[in-house]
Amino acid sequence: MSLNSTDPGLINSLLSAVAGGTLDIVDLTAPLSSGTPTLKLPAPFVNLIDFSLETVSGFNDPGPFWKHHNIHTGEHIGTHVDAPSHWITGRDGDDVSQLPLKALVAPAVVLDFSAQAAADPDFVLEVDHIQAWEAQHGVLPAGGWLLLRTGWDTFADDADAFLNIDDSGSHTPGISAECAKWLAEETAIAGLGVETVGIDAGNAGAFDPPFPAHYYLLGNNKYGVTLLQNLAQLPPTGAMIIVAPLKIVGGTASPARVLALVERSR
Ligand code: MN
Predict the structure, then answer these.
(1) Mean pLDDT of 228-241
(2) Who contacts 113 (Cβ-Cβ below 8 Å, separation ≥6)?
(3) Which residues contact 54 (CB under 8 A, 6 or more apart)?
(4) Which secondary structure element, helix H or strand E, spans residue 82, and what is its range?
(5) Which pLDDT belongs to residue 265?
(6) What is the spatial distance between Cα 182 and Cα 220, in angstroms, rounded to a whole number?
(7) Are 190 and 223 in contact (CB under 8 A)?
(8) pLDDT class for 43, splitting at 50, 70, 90?
(9) Please, which pLDDT band fits residue 4 given cuts at 50, 70 and 90?
(10) What 3-state class would DSSP assign to 50?
(11) For residue 70, is it within any domain?
(12) What are the pLDDT digits (tens) for 201-218?
């Protein structure tokens, strides 16, 4: 409650800014359907099922006045949140129902390496890249999210281009093992958000350790978000992200709705 009649209060100020267009809500979430690109692990590993809707009734005998579906999906499908318990290094850590709310509503910065990823699909972010960015924009936000823009969301409607798999594996951008270790151990970020199908580079199974973003970040109680879109609509600094995974008890991940609040000048 505001203390005097001229103070609109924080929530009213926020709502007025949204209504007036000075605070933009950007949807960072990929549409979730049976066509959403998903991770394809090579044999002998076993893949999760893709997302699908199963009709139980549709205004017919099983339910004459209603339509409803069963949802079939793996945890790590579409835009989703990785919890520490997903990885062997974080196996005793939080599951996806236990993530602190202050990590899910937090500042976000966008590091744009779309030009580098366009030139080299195996581009990986290095510590030097982040430190050069920090020299210009300030340190990564404590308790906030590093969102890595690679332009990969432009391929999200084309699974072949998105996964970019050839005889030597998948070729999509990510972060190096050294960078993953540094982010996990030397920075105060809550998590890493990416546009690709997972938080590791496509060929990160061959890195040391394998899948270092998972290994280091989840092993240090940090989180991942994948398959983000529309990062081009966010400024380098100043956005607020809202990450909303389902509260799946014991879950190692969950599909999520991810939104950003961005201040616009008029
Ligand atoms: Mn995942």
Answers:
(1) 98
(2) 123, 125, 129, 148, 149, 150, 173
(3) 69, 70, 71, 72
(4) strand 80-82
(5) 86
(6) 11
(7) yes
(8) confident
(9) low
(10) coil
(11) no
(12) 999 999 999 999 999 999
Helix H or strand E segment including 14: helix 10-20
Residue showing tokens 């432009």 = 154
AA letter at 119: A
Separation of CA 236 and ligand 1 centre (Å): 25
**Ligand 1 centroid – CA 83 distance (Å):** 8
**27 DSSP β-pair partners:** 259
- Domain with 220 in it: 27-42+75-263
Could you give phi then psi for residue 174, rounded to 5 degrees? -170, -145
How many angstroms separate the alpha carbon of residue 97 from the centre of ligand 1? 15
- Between CA 234 and CA 230, with CA 27 as vertex, the angle to 5 degrees is 45
**CA 41 to ligand 1 center in whole angstroms:** 12
CB atoms within 10 A of CB 133: 21
> What CATH number does residue 181 fall under?
3.50.30.50
Residues 130, 135, 140, 146, Cα dihedral to 10°: -40
pLDDT(158) > 60: yes
* Averaged pLDDT of the chain: 96
Total number of domains constituting the chain? 1
- What is the Cα gyration radius of the chain? 20
Query: In this structure, how many other beta carbons lie within 10 angstroms of the beta carbon of residue 210?
Result: 12
Asked whether the beta carbons of 255 and 245 are under 8 A apart, the reply is yes
Residue 141 placed within a domain:
yes
- Using an 8 Å Cβ cutoff, are 240 and 66 in contact? no
DSSP states along 180-217: HHHHHHH---SEEEESSSSSS-TTGGGSSSSSHIIIII
d(CA 243, CA 264): 21
Does 48 reside within a domain?
A: no
Does residue 130 fall inside a structural domain? yes
Active-site annotation, residues: 86
